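Take a look at this chain, tokens included, and explain the fold to me:
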Amino acid sequence: MSSDSIKTMVREKYGTIAKASETKKSSCCSSGCCGSGEVDYTVFSQDYSKLDGYVPEADLGLGCGIPVESAKIKKGATVIDLGSGAGNDCFIVRRMVGETGYVIGIDMTEEMIGKAKKNNAKMGYDNVEFRLGEIEKLPVDDAVADVVISNCVLNLVPDKRKAFGEIIRVLKKDGHFNISDIVIEGELPAKLRTVAELYAGCISGAVSKKEYLQIIKDAGFGNISISSEKNIDIPDDLLLQYMNEKDLKEVRSSAKIVSITVYGEKS
């Protein structure tokens, strides 16, 4: 798929999730409600419910980690959340930065931005805003943020080098990022890399962990570290929608899908 077709497909999928969440307690494809041929986009999600500032309506279960926990966010900081969805991480960050800080959520899906703004109106925060835009071309001036976070979104971005180039551009000197994402250990079969549904589900768009860390280093970040790492067990019945039993065994033996939370500093 071309870069533009990938973005269109992802935008449509997550727009559908945002719309469906208005009438359901969770996303349109949460565990147990996926129909045939659909991907469970919540398969990687972790429990946010005990974090201070948690807003249930903003949690669509679409992440693969909890980057806010290890992001070293201080009172008064300016924080940007990439792929902010309905605002889940942004509202928790707002409790961390307090009234003197500022939070900017960026998402390329109009429906998600609309839902996030609706949630923010209920909270009454005047130092949280949501902007429509793409990660490869952020609608933010240079050197604005103390911290950039993101949760299971950069794997959806076609040009990851451009994305990390944008992250280092919008960070202040001595700023840092803390990002949860999906990477691959081993070799993901070509058959899976061509499945659009699995791209939107954060699988087909993932690169190897080695390549991911090299992209970060090449962007100019230092003091790079992984604070958490967890193997993700994709259900057999999901993968069997796109391959036979023989291919499934090959996948299980040749590749691991891993959730990592990565930290890096702008010097």
